[in-house]
Amino acid sequence: MLGADFTFPRAIEGQPTRLSDFGGLQIGRFRTSDDVELAYWVAGEGEPLVFIPGWSANGALYVYLMVLLSRHYRVHVLDVRNQGLSQRVSFGTRISRIAMDLKEFAEHLHLDKAHYCGWSMGASVLWAYIDLFGTQGVRKLAFIDQAPSIYCHADWTEQERLDAGAFTSSPERMIASYTQMKPVNMLISGTRVLEHATQMDSPYYANALAFAQSIIIDDMSYTGQVLFDHATNDWRDVIRSKIDAPTAIFSGEYSDWLHSQRWMASVIPDASLFVYSKADHGDHFLALKNPLKFSSDLHGFLMR
């Protein structure tokens, strides 16, 4: 598939030892209306389930989720522009354009109805999609641990900040900490997400990250372009008023945005909230660190 096999560094009982053990995994490509080639990962048969990864993430990180969920669904993971195996470009680096890419991706696959799951920035892409196109074509939705607004406005009350999950008053300095590893304190960027990203406390996560790093070269000069737009959007109006499909929300006790996820569950009609404990790897990377529990919980929700 990728020109060479890959052996996962940590052995996990009952899971593939090598990439070639995962039969049926494929990579497809299509071109958007603004002529950008996007890659996507696909496996399995059944109802379509589409994943939109978070910022700088890619389909390779979803390898165990695809192994597990492809037993029940036709699973697709879209590498958004400038990420994963998709083309690097210096235009269209906005959440709204990525939402259009998602619409064109569904049209490319002729998906009349599908389940959609967005993690981190991928959830913001889904909110933009719903804002622009509504929930037509959506069976069920799942959002994984994304703050409705990253940027905290100076005139917000503390309750507004908590509901929004906002954690920075300086998007530029926050972005520099992500893309250039510049030091920043918790008053400027009140999150431990980078700390959680580097904790190899799950063999699933360690293996998926090793696989991704073996085939994908990230270029922050491209990846970072979308961050200012991502950081300065406030999606609370969409979350309050435009989500009318069955919705699951996933977060954890060690998430920086748990309060905002509870707020989302309170305003989305009949939303289901899943909060993972520390033992369940309940941080921002819960789906990648604990794919067994997450795939089981997501499948249970989708089957209701």
Protein described:
GO terms for molecular function: hydrolase activity. It holds the Pfam family Abhydrolase_1. This is Pimeloyl-ACP methyl ester carboxylesterase. By secondary structure, the chain is of the alpha/beta class. It has a single domain (23-167, 202-303), classed as Rossmann fold, CATH 3.40.50.1820. Helices cover 37% and strands 16% of the residues. It contains 13 helices and 8 strands. It has helices spanning 63-69, 95-108, 121-133, 158-164, 171-179, 193-197, 203-215, 220-223, 227-232, 236-241, 258-267, 286-289, 291-303, and strands spanning 26-31, 37-43, 47-52, 73-78, 114-119, 138-144, 247-252, 272-276. It has an 8-stranded mixed β-sheet, with helices on both faces. Helix 3 (121-133) links the parallel strand 5 (114-119) and strand 6 (138-144). Helix 1 (63-69) crosses helix 13 and helix 2 (95-108) packs across helix 3. The longest helix is centred in the middle third of the chain and has 14 residues, at 95-108. The chain is globular. The two termini are 35 Å apart. The relative contact order is 0.14.
- Kindly, what is the distance between the CA atoms of the first and last residues, rounded to a whole number of angstroms? 35 Å
Instruction: Please tell me the total number of domains.
Output: 1
Count every helix, treating DSSP H or I runs of 4 or more residues as helices. Answer: 13
CA-atom Rg in angstroms: 18 Å
Structural class: alpha/beta
CATH superfamily assignment? Answer: Alpha/Beta hydrolase fold, catalytic domain
CATH topology assignment? Rossmann fold
How much β-strand is present in the residues? 15-25%
In sequence order, what are the helices and strands, one letter per element?
EEEHEHEHEHHHHHHHEHEHH
Low-confidence stretches: none
Sheet bearing the most strands, described? Answer: 8 strands, mixed
Shape: globular
Regarding CATH, which class?
Answer: Alpha Beta
Helix content: 25-40%
What is the CATH architecture descriptor? 3-Layer(aba) Sandwich
Mean pLDDT: 97
Number of DSSP strands? 8
Enumerate the strands of the largest sheet in spatial order, edge to edge or round the barrel.
1-2-4-3-5-6-7-8
Pfam families: Abhydrolase_1
GO molecular function, one term: hydrolase activity
Keywords: Hydrolase
Domain AB hydrolase-1: 48-285
